[in-house]
Design brief:
It is a single chain. This protein is α/β, with parallel strands linked by helices and 358 residues long. The chain folds into two domains: 200 residues, Rossmann fold (3-Layer(aba) Sandwich); 124 residues, Phosphofructokinase domain (Rossmann fold), CATH 3.40.50. It is 36% helix and 18% strand. The strands form four sheets. The chain has a seven-stranded mixed β-sheet with strand order 4-3-2-7-8-14-15, with helices on both faces. A four-stranded parallel β-sheet has the order 10-11-9-12, sandwiched between helices. A two-stranded antiparallel sheet has the order 1-13. The protein starts with a strand and ends in a 7-residue tail after the last helix. Bound molecules: 6-O-phosphono-beta-D-fructofuranose. 6-O-phosphono-beta-D-fructofuranose binds next to loops. It is found in: Cytoplasm. Pfam families: PFK. Belongs to the phosphofructokinase type A (PFKA) family. Mixed-substrate PFK group III subfamily. Catalyzes the phosphorylation of D-fructose 6-phosphate to fructose 1,6-bisphosphate by ATP, the first committing step of glycolysis.
C-alpha cells in the first residue's frame, strides 16, 4: 500500500465529471471527519481539474461553518465541476487539444496540500489517478455517478436518487397512459449501461425495459405489448436507456430523434398503439439526495478522510455488499461496470415478466 508523510496537515478535495445528488453530502462528510477527528484543514478546489489550471488556483477553505446551512440536503456541488476538461487532452479555443497535466500538478503544489480526495465517476477516476501518479500526489477516490458504472462498488453516490426521479416519472406516466390508452416510453440516462433503466423499470412497474447490455429485437417488444393488451390492459410503460442497442439498421447517431423517440415510433409501427415519449434528461441529476445517497455519501466521505489522514494513497472507497471498504484505485480506474445478465436486477426483471427486448 502506498503511504505518505503529512507535512502541511491540509488536504484538498474536488468534484469531477457530471454532477449528481449527494456530492455536497460527501464533501461535508470529508470536511467534518478531517477537521473534527484528525485536526486537518480542508481546501475545496473549484471546478474540478479546471480549477487547478487557473492562477491563482480556484479554491475555498472548507470549515465547519461552511456547512452550517443546507448543503447536506442540496443537489449539485458547492465546489463546481467539469466533465470536459481532461488536463491530458484539454480542449483549446482554437479546436486543438493540449496536454496541460503539468500545469494542473503545479497548481496542486501551490496549495501546500498533503493529499487530494477526488469525487468522480469512472472517467474522472482514470484522469485523476493518472494525474496523481504523474505528480506523485497522494490520492483517494470517492465514486459518484448516476450511471452507477464505477467498478467494484455496488453503489455510486447519486444513483439511487436518480432512480427515484425515474420512478416518480413512471408513477406520473401510468395514470395518463391508462386514461388515454397509450404506450408511454420513458428514456432515462445511464450512458453505456442500464442501471437506472432496470431499477426504475422494476420499481415503477414497467412492461418493457431496454438496456445497452441486451440487444433489442423489436419483434419481441411488440409481442410483449400485444400480450399485455390481450390480458385486458389498455396501456403500457416502456423504459429505454439512452445507450440502448437498437436493431442494426438504426443509426442512433445519425437519427435526430432520441433513443426513446425511435423506440416509440417502432412500437407504434409494430403494434398500432398510440405512443408518447418523455426524455427525462438532466432532471435525474438534480434535486435533493435521497436518504440512501446521504448515508452512502457520509460513509464513503468519512472513510476517505480517514485514509487521507492515515497517509494512504492510490485507494478508492467503495460500498461492497453493505460494508464500506477501500481497494486499489488501479482496480477501478478505466473500467466500466455494466449490468450482469445473471445479476439480481436483470433476474428480478425477468422474473417479474418484464421484457428486456430479447
Ligand atoms: O455520466 C452522467 C451522465 O448524466 C450520463 O448519464 C449522460 O449520458 C451524461 O452524463 C450527460 O452529460 P452532459 O451533462 O455533458 O450532457
Amino acid at each position: 500500500m502506498t503511504r505518505f508523510t503529512r507535512k502541511h496537515n491540509r488536504i484538498g478535495i474536488l468534484t469531477s465529471g457530471g454532477d449528481c445528488a449527494g456530492l455536497n453530502a460527501a464533501i461535508r462528510a470529508v470536511t467534518f471527519r478531517a477537521i473534527e477527528q484528525h485536526g486537518l484543514a480542508v481546501v475545496g478546489i473549484n471546478d474540478g481539474t479546471a480549477g487547478l489550471l487557473e492562477r491563482p488556483v480556484k479554491q475555498m477553505d472548507l470549515t465547519m461553518k461552511v456547512f452550517a446551512g443546507n448543503y447536506l440536503r442540496m443537489g449539485g456541488t458547492l465546489l463546481g465541476t467539469v466533465n470536459k476538461g481532461d488536463p491530458f487532452a484539454y480542449p483549446m479555443p482554437d479546436g486543438s487539444v493540449k496536454d496541460r497535466s503539468a500545469e494542473a500538478i503545479e497548481g496542486f503544489r501551490t496549495l501546500d496540500l498533503d493529499a487530494l480526495i477526488g469525487i468522480g465517476g469512472d472517467g474522472s477516476m482514470r484522469i485523476l489517478s493518472r494525474l496523481a501518479t504523474q505528480g506523485r500526489i497522494p490520492f483517494i477516490g470517492i465514486p459518484k455517478t448516476i450511471d452507477n458504472d464505477v467498478a467494484r462498488t455496488d453503489f455510486a453516490i447519486g444513483y439511487m436518487s436518480a432512480v427515484d426521479v425515474a420512478v416518480d416519472a413512471l408513477d406520473r406516466l401510468q395514470p395518463t397512459a391508462a386514461s388515454h390508452r397509450r404506450v408511454m416510453v420513458l428514456e432515462v440516462m445511464g450512458r453505456d449501461v442500464g442501471w437506472i433503466a432496470i431499477a426504475a423499470g422494476i420499481a415503477g412497474g414497467a412492461d418493457v425495459v431496454l438496456i445497452p447490455e441486451v440487444p433489442v429485437s423489436m419483434a419481441k417488444v411488440a409481442a410483449k405489448l400485444k400480450a399485455v393488451s390481450a390480458q385486458g390492459r389498455n396501456h403500457a410503460l416502456v423504459v429505454v436507456a439512452e445507450g440502448v442497442r437498437l436493431p442494426p439498421e438504426t443509426d442512433l447517431k445519425a437519427d435526430c430523434r432520441s433513443a426513446g423517440g425511435i423506440v416509440a415510433d417502432m412500437i407504434a409501427e409494430a403494434t398500432g398503439a398510440e405512443t408518447r415519449v418523455t426524455v427525462l434528461g438532466h432532471v435525474q441529476r438534480g434535486g435533493s439526495p435521497n436518504a440512501f445517497d446521504r448515508i452512502l455519501a457520509s460513509s464513503l466521505g468519512a472513510h476517505a478522510a480517514d485514509l487521507a489522514a492515515r497517509g494512504l494513497s492510490d485507494r478508492i472507497v467503495i460500498w461492497d455488499r453493505g460494508k464500506i471498504v477501500d481497494v486499489p484505485l488501479s482496480s477501478v480506474a478505466g473500467q466500466t461496470r455494466a449490468l450482469k445478465l445473471d445479476g439480481t436486477l436483470v433476474e428480478t426483471a425477468r422474473r417479474m415478466g418484464i421484457c428486456l427486448g430479447d
